[in-house]
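lol ok so funny story. i was supposed to be doing the assay writeup but got distracted and ended up predicting the structure for this chain instead. priorities right. anyway since i did it might as well share w the group, maybe its usefull for someone
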Amino acid sequence: MRVLCETLYKLSIVNVEVYPISLPVRATVTARVEAVTLKGDEELLLEFLRVYRDSVQLVIDEIWGLDKTPSMTKLHNMFYNRLMKMGFRAHHVSEIYKRAKEVV
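and the output, tada:
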């Protein structure tokens, strides 16, 4: 897992759509992600993406039933140690919180 975390990622915006200001501001973004891996590491990348997706779902499932969405500090206290034990780096853990909070 740690080797995969060293993989470089490049994100390029393909399409951006912004709604009028008179309505609540909302943006739709379509992005193409290109992952640069060492030859033969494609399966490792797919495994990382599966674990990342499942981790986001884990956080969503646990905060879904709460009365209000927890702050980032509260999310950190709840999940940081578990996600780090799964092999994620700190910036991945932070992104997992953000994605889960966006959904809830």
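The radius of gyration is 16 Å. The CA atoms of residues 84 and 90 lie 7 Å apart.
back to the writeup now i swear
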